Amino acid sequence: MRVTALAMLISTAAAAATDARDDDRERRDAMRRAVESGDAMPLSQILPKLRGRIAGDVTGVDVERQRGHWRYEFRIIGRDGRVRDVYVDARSGEIEGIEEK
């Protein structure tokens, strides 16, 4: 993924955050606290790890808390044109699963 694509992703995420509903704001605040406490890695550390393992372009990012831990969900369009959801443990940065769409 090129730097411009990453910049667009970050600016899009920032714009979406501005318009977020209260529950989204609470989730972001909780995630920020998780990063500050070391319970989760920031997106800026996760993305390079993911890029090294999965070829393609990140077109979407979500974060959620499941079964007591934080998890990133990335939507990736592969070089082959296939769309995949990639689930990454936010604490370790390890891929938990890949679902082809």
UniProtKB/TrEMBL annotation:
<protein>
    <submittedName>
        <fullName>PepSY domain-containing protein</fullName>
    </submittedName>
</protein>
<feature type="region of interest" description="Disordered">
    <location>
        <begin position="18"/>
        <end position="39"/>
    </location>
</feature>
<dbReference type="InterPro" id="IPR025711">
    <property type="entry name" value="PepSY"/>
</dbReference>
<keyword id="KW-0732">Signal</keyword>
<feature type="compositionally biased region" description="Basic and acidic residues">
    <location>
        <begin position="19"/>
        <end position="36"/>
    </location>
</feature>
<dbReference type="Pfam" id="PF03413">
    <property type="entry name" value="PepSY"/>
</dbReference>
<feature type="signal peptide">
    <location>
        <begin position="1"/>
        <end position="16"/>
    </location>
</feature>
<feature type="domain" description="PepSY">
    <location>
        <begin position="41"/>
        <end position="99"/>
    </location>
</feature>
